[in-house]
Design goal:
Blueprint (H helix, E strand, L loop, with lengths): L9 H5 L3 H32 L6 H27 L14 H10 L1 H12 L1 H22 L1 H4 L4 E4 L2 E4 L1 E5 L10 E5 L2 H37 L7 H8 L3 H4 L6
Antiparallel strand pairs: 1-2, 3-4
Helix pairs in contact: 2-3, 2-6, 2-8, 3-4, 3-5, 3-8, 5-8, 6-8
């Protein structure tokens, strides 16, 4: 996963594609993932409500199709990082709506899609929001010397200019006051330097979050591989191991 690779040097990491690609992917999930979660949840709930009637049969089939479509959208977002991610769905043994219904809702791949689209939505979106908010805050802090003077507040008819990092209900010199009131260029430069250090460190958290997110998506939305597949292939190949296995008669 070259686009989300971590590097030891904070400066090289900041100027690489990794943090920006990670920010783009996580930001996309906040909008696309939320929309897909809403679509999948509506489809599943609608099918479940009507499941006690005959109308529920085609609705449940349509719900499985909607869930699969939502999962395919997420697989498409994984393609630049992992290549083609296949769902590994089972095919119905025969024609007919009932055959499709049984196959789709007995297929573990369908339930893995639901687990990602619905079950993982709250923890993933919460983690993404926290990390993106910190990253954007530190990124904005680097630019403070250019705009620290623009914000202002009026206290008892007196206008104070500056950016508040804290709580100053009575202006920069009033009490109570907690934090840093950036109303001079030296204070803005100090805040920008601290923000730069925190931004460089936060890049690691941002990229690590994107890597964990995409790994979870691939694990749930991808085809489940047989853990003994390689061992079985070795046993099928001609070699000395085959002479130890008696021929079936």
């Amino acid at each position: 996963m070259n686009a989300l690779s971590l590097r030891r040097d904070p400066l090289r990491l900041a100027f690489s594609k990794a943090p920006w690609s990670a920010a783009w992917y996580l930001t996309g999930y906040l909008f696309i993932g939320t929309a897909l979660c809403a679509v999948a949840l509506t489809a599943v709930l609608t099918g479940a409500v009507f499941a006690i009637t005959l109308a529920g049969i085609p609705l449940l089939v349509a719900a499985s199709e909607a869930v699969r479509w939502c999962a395919d959208v997420e697989r498409a977002r994984l393609r630049p990082r992992y290549g083609v991610v296949e769902g590994g769905y089972r095919e119905p043994p025969g024609p007919g709506v009932v055959s499709k219904l049984r196959t789709r809702w007995q297929d573990p791949a369908t339930w893995r899609d639901i687990a990602y689209l619905l079950g993982m939505y709250v923890p993933l979106v919460t983690l993404d929001v926290i990390v993106l908010t910190l990253w954007l805050t530190f990124l904005a802090g680097i630019t403070l010397p250019a705009w620290y003077w623009a914000p202002w507040q009026s206290v008892h008819g007196t206008r104070f200019h500056g950016y508040q990092l804290g709580y100053f209900p009575n202006g920069p010199h009033g009490h109570p006051g907690y934090g840093l009131y950036i109303d001079t260029l030296p204070k803005a430069l100090l805040a920008a330097a601290i923000s730069l250090i925190l931004f460089l460190l936060c890049n690691y958290a941002l990229v690590a979050t994107a890597r964990a997110h995409t790994a979870a998506a691939r694990a749930l939305l991808g085809r489940q591989e047989d853990p003994l597949r390689e061992a079985k292939e070795v046993l099928r190949r001609p070699g000395p191991l085959n002479t130890l296995i008696p021929n079936e008669r």
